């Protein structure tokens, strides 16, 4: 059975890490998060199933950061420092992908981005994911 979903080309800033990804629901799952790490990183992430990412080059140039419960795995390029993807704590069957790494996509393409309440993480609070707010971008031209 062929997969009709679009396969996106993606890369870090320096281009040493290149990958292809099919998204779980195209760009409908974009989000940011308020947790201690994401609020510093500042990237917009979009969901992909673990099986739907394929490294073309430079997987060995990625480095890994873990903290707190060390469940989530945050990957970034060891050369340019750009976050490429992470394996989620809230759903370990999924990666969050840095939308800015996807060819032809800018984080400023999205007028509204949901911000998840990562401070009270669903795995700590025992409740489902909560939305902390909506981030809006209004282009002036
Ligand atoms: Zn790089």
Structure, explained:
With 141 residues, the chain is mainly β. It has a single domain, classed as Beta Complex (Metal Binding Protein, Guanine Nucleotide Exchange Factor, Chain A), CATH 2.170.150.70. Helices cover 6% and strands 40% of the residues. The protein has two helices and twelve strands; from the N terminus they run E-E-E-E-H-E-E-E-E-E-E-E-H-E. It has helices spanning 38-41, 122-125; strands at residues 7-11, 18-22, 24-27, 31-33, 45-49, 53-57, 62-65, 73-77, 83-87, 94-98, 112-116, 131-136. The chain has a five-stranded antiparallel sheet with strand order 5-10-9-8-7, with no helix packed on it. Strands 1-2-6 form a three-stranded antiparallel sheet, with no helix packed on it. Strand 7 (62-65) and strand 8 form a beta hairpin. The longest helix is centred in the N-terminal third of the chain and has 4 residues, at 38-41. The radius of gyration is 15 Å and the shape is globular. The relative contact order is 0.22. Residues 12-14, 16-17, 77, 79-80, 82 line the site of zinc ion.
């Amino acid at each position: 059975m062929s997969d009709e979903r679009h396969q996106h080309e993606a890369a870090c800033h320096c281009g040493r890490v290149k990958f292809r990804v099919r998204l779980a629901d195209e760009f409908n799952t974009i989000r940011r998060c308020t947790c201690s790490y994401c609020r510093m990183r500042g990237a917009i992430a979009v969901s992909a199933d673990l099986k739907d990412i394929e490294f073309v080059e430079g997987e060995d140039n990625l480095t890994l950061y873990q903290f707190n419960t060390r469940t989530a795995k945050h990957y970034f390029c060891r050369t340019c420092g750009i976050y490429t993807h992470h394996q989620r704590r809230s759903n370990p069957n999924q990666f969050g992908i840095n939308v800015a790494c996807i060819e032809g996509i800018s984080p400023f393409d999205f007028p509204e981005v949901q911000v998840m309440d990562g401070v009270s993480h669903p795995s700590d609070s025992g409740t489902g994911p909560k939305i902390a707010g909506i981030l809006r971008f209004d282009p002036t031209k």
